[in-house]
Amino acid sequence: MDEYEEFRTLARTLVGHLQAKGNARTTVSHQGVTVEGWVVDHGNSYSSETLYSNAPGDWKEVWGNNDQIILGTDAELYSYSWGSKEGGHPVVTERHSSLTRLQAKDLVGREGAPFSTYTQKLKRLRWS
Predict the structure, then answer these.
(1) How far apart are the first and last CA of the chain?
(2) Of 50, 57, 85, 118, which has the maximum CB count within 10 A?
(3) Per-residue pLDDT for the chain (128 aa), expressed as one digit of tens each?
(4) Using omega within 30 degrees of 0 as the cis cutoff, is the peptide bond preceding 56 cis?
(5) Cα–Cα distance between 105 and 109 in angstroms, integer?
(6) What's the Cα-to-Cα distance from 27 to each of 24, 39, 81, 91, rounded to whole Å?
């Protein structure tokens, strides 16, 4: 069995364990696709950047992004991110989000053994 198949086996086993324990799940949706599962990792990149143009009252404030890596009930890992921008006259809020199933190339990592970063995160999730 190669490293990726070992990782996939761990994910499937963990989903069964979390379901049996009844651990609370999160649900996210984007463009008609819904994923239910458990948050493996999260972060944010808040930015208070304000953008102006030459037009009077034309400005935009970037509120940043929030990111989650979710282990779905289907044992797949997903990246969910969302954020918003606000500005203009009258004030308009633009919200954005994305939901992507992660591939092996997204999970392999740059340091340590292949898939070691997410393997450790999955093993810790078992105890949350």
Answers:
(1) 28
(2) 118
(3) 799 999 999 999 999 999 999 999 999 999 999 999 999 998 876 666 666 666 666 666 666 678 899 999 999 999 999 887 777 767 777 778 899 999 999 999 989 999 999 999 999 998 87
(4) no
(5) 8
(6) 10, 10, 13, 30
- Residue at 42: amino acid letter: H
pTM of the model: 0.81
- The CB density around residue 71, as the number of other CB atoms within 10 Å, is 24
Does residue 114 have a cis bond before it (omega within 30 degrees)? Answer: no
- Name the residue among 100, 73, 96 with its Cα closest to residue 83: 96
The encoded tokens of residue 51 equal 């953008």
